[in-house]
Hints:
alpha+beta; 16 helices; 9 strands; globular
Amino acid sequence: MVSIADTCSAALRNMPRLEIWLKELALPVDPALVPLMCLQSAFFTPWLPSESCYQTARLTVWLMAIDNVLDAPGAADGTEARVRAWRKVLDGQAAEADDPVARALAEITEVLRRDGRPELTTVWRESMRQTLVGMVRENTATRTAAAGGGLPRLTDYLLHGAWTIGVEQQVTALWALMDEPGLPCRLPVLRGALRQAATAIRLLNDLRGHHRERSEGKADALAIGLSEQEAYRRAEAGIEGCRRTLAPLTAAGYGSAVALERVVLWHARMYHRFDPVRPGRAAARPLPGGGPGATGPTRHAPSVHRPREAPPMGIEQEVPSKRQVQEVLDAIASGASGASGTSGASGAEYDRARLTELFDLLEPVDVGLLIGTWRGGAFENSSENAEQLAQMRWYGKRFLDADQVEPLLCLDEDGQVYSYEEMGLATLKEVVRHGKQSTAMVYDQLPIIDHFRRLTDDVLLGVMDKKGDPVDFYFHLTRVSVPVRPADGTPGTS
């Protein structure tokens, strides 16, 4: 009851403020949605000050505004220019006076910079960048389909669609505004659960808004070929998996996990009842729940009961110690030689068992973190894989975007970097390894997946999973800060 009272109180305080802000900036969002935005943000974290709830509500309004701007008739040609301008604002540059969306973003970014925890505001900012990337991709896919081209692959659609649904931006902003001790140490678990939730909510959004989006010429999971029953099944499994992962944290009372769970439940129940883009229209029918020919009552939304059991998880044990991380960083710094594939530990083998233990504890990575050029090295020089890389004069990897990866940058006889493509290129996919979901690199022509975990923002621990090879091959990547120009003369990427 106290939580309900706090939710209503915060929402009522923030409604007039949000409506005034919306009108002053002339954002393209229906003012009738203001109560919904204020209620949901207060429901997420009723224990936070109403000011924090207000900032989350403003962010949600902004996310709806950019969707409306980019979907407006005739807006397609200017999409990339608008997104570039918004990204500059996100990076701290001044907003153009004639762009209300940019001005709104500048205000939101400044508040989070001022009041948010820096290490968590960085996570939020990266999620916002991914949203803008996803918006461009969705816009491109819509134009391609309208011109008679093909639809995107389901995996690519869900990868970017999970970013553009807005859940990750809401949650990471809330985390940044919390003063919860030790929250950054719990990020690996929290972000894995968040990614599951965002994909599930994207599917529920597609189920509820499919007919509207089809009339608007947009692609969604159902248009790409996923059946309603399969979309619902995946959404239900994603929400259940998210809550199962969070169970030990919510039981311990961590606000970061409680907030994420409340965000998930709000969106799941909302999409059951109505399409938030057109809240005044009643739902035509419940979301599918029973299988074909089911005779029992249809389940109207993913089950919201607390998981009956959760796998044991020692919260502190899920985080690597500073000593473990620093030991590997010191090894890389003291002996890394990515050009020749020699050991990252001064030529001596680094214990594989310790690398395996550390890898499973480290934080996952996303596409945004990977973009750029990386110099690589191995932790040993005696295996077949290490010897092959040495013979190739392997330099590292370059990630242009999720669909364009050069996995084998090598050095020619003159020491110039080039992309060795005789073994094919690669793409980035979301892959689960040892129970943790992360962005991985999948070769186009080889049965090889490279998995990555974050040591720092500029140093990654990697492991090559090669079909038929019983022993994993560990390697490291260090971000190249100065652009590398390939031997063919094409522009490099930093």
